[in-house]
Write a structure and sequence with these properties.
Elements (H helix, E strand, L loop, with lengths): L19 E5 L7 H6 L9 E6 L1 H11 L4 E4 L10 E6 L16 H16 L5 E4 L4 H7 L11 H8 L6 E6 L2 E5 L9 H4 L2 H17 L7 E5 L14 H14 L4 E6 L1 H4 L2 H4 L4 E4 L2 H12 L4 E5 L5 E4 L16 H23 L1
Parallel strand pairs: 1-2, 1-5, 2-4, 3-4, 5-12, 7-10, 8-9, 8-10
Antiparallel strand pairs: 6-7, 6-11, 11-12
Helix pairs in contact: 3-4, 7-8
């Protein structure tokens, strides 16, 4: 399974301005701000702009002894090496690394709102998100028995008026998308309806073409049951739902392989025959990918009108302020966002 986007790099567009990417710094007490400080370690074929409280970034840099220059973003100004550009969003309360404060829950959402607005309006070519803490955001919103904020994916879908999105993780030589995400296992079979499966496959196919530059993507589809149901002896979801949807979409020209038994789908020989995998539920596909790529994987939200990638880890409060957090996943998320922005630009130019 090749992970090359197949699109021209921004470096190759002679004379073109590099794309501008927004990086939301996430939970201020977590590792997000200090990971954002690390972006100066590489030369990127893009202009990276961090969304954060600028004094928080300066304070974290000083505490860690980072030799960086932190300035307010000015689209008309040249960017010097070793400089981090910041779009300032004010904290509601002072921050201590590793200590959550619900008072700053709304601040985290303001970062997302600013990035979404910039992507929708064309200011940014993509957004990359550092980790957030769902619980403290909900506490900050005054929630007790409900979860008004359930995650980046749902928030982005709601604020871009997107009816269905698809979660895909990239890493370890794999692209793994999910038909269902954060559901109890008992609720998964009922959630995989013909409509859900068809819409998910259409989104996955379209974004592999338009955002990842794959001309005719081949998608490996996992069965739900052991041995993909074994002809109905281990469950009928393959016969009643999955196979009819695959046959209907194949008739339209989509290259879909399956349903395949999940226990043998992830062997190298099978993976080499496809460009992406569609797993039926969270823990069917992600343990394999995370085993192969944890700390360097990327979470991608497909189906949005904008490009969004994210780290594959949490806020790591125990590491915050130590300088020991690994920026590998953030760097991989930035790289993929740049490739996706280039692929989308190429697709629009060819249309």
């Amino acid at each position: 399974m090749s992970l090359s986007a197949g699109a021209p790099s921004p470096r190759g567009r002679c004379g073109a301005q590099p794309p501008v990417l927004a990086i939301t710094s996430g939970e201020p007490a977590g590792v997000g701000p200090e990971l954002c400080l690390r972006i100066v370690e590489r030369a990127w074929p893009a202009r990276l702009v961090v969304l954060a409280d600028i004094e928080l970034m300066r304070a974290r840099a000083a505490a860690l002894g980072c030799d960086v220059r932190i300035v307010a973003f000015d689209p008309a100004a040249a960017v010097l090496p070793g400089t981090i550009e910041v779009i300032h969003q004010a904290l509601a309360a002072p921050v201590r690394a590793g200590v959550l404060d619900p008072a700053n829950g709304a601040y985290v959402l303001h970062l997302l709102d600013r990035a979404i607005a910039g992507c929708v309006g064309g200011e940014f070519a993509a957004m990359v998100t550092a980790p957030v803490h769902k619980g403290v955001i909900c506490e900050g919103l005054g929630a007790h028995d409900t979860m008004p904020f359930t995650g980046h994916t749902e928030y982005l879908a709601e604020h871009t008026d997107t009816p269905r999105v698809v979660m895909m993780l990239v890493g370890g030589g794999m692209r793994v998308a999910l038909a269902t995400t954060h559901l109890p296992l008992s609720a998964v079979p009922g959630a995989i309806t013909p409509q859900v499966l068809e819409e998910t496959l259409r989104i996955l196919h379209t974004d592999l073409v338009c955002h990842l530059g794959l001309g005719a993507p081949r998608i490996l589809v996992a069965g739900l049951n052991p041995h993909a149901g074994e002809g109905g002896h281990m469950g009928r979801e393959e016969i009643d739902v999955i196979i009819p949807v695959l046959e209907r979409l194949r008739a339209e020209g989509l290259q879909l392989v399956g349903p395949l038994p999940a226990d043998t789908l992830f062997v190298p020989h099978t993976l080499a025959q496809g460009d992406a995998v569609l797993a039926m539920y969270h823990d069917q596909g992600l343990p394999v990918l995370k085993h192969a790529s944890f700390g360097g994987g990327v979470n991608v939200t497909l189906g949005l009108p904008i490009i969004r990638t994210s780290v594959d880890h949490g806020t790591a409060l125990d590491l915050a302020g130590s300088g020991r957090a690994d920026p590998g996943s953030l760097f991989a998320a930035i790289e993929l966002a740049i490739d996706m922005a280039a692929a989308r630009l190429a697709a629009r130019a060819a249309a």
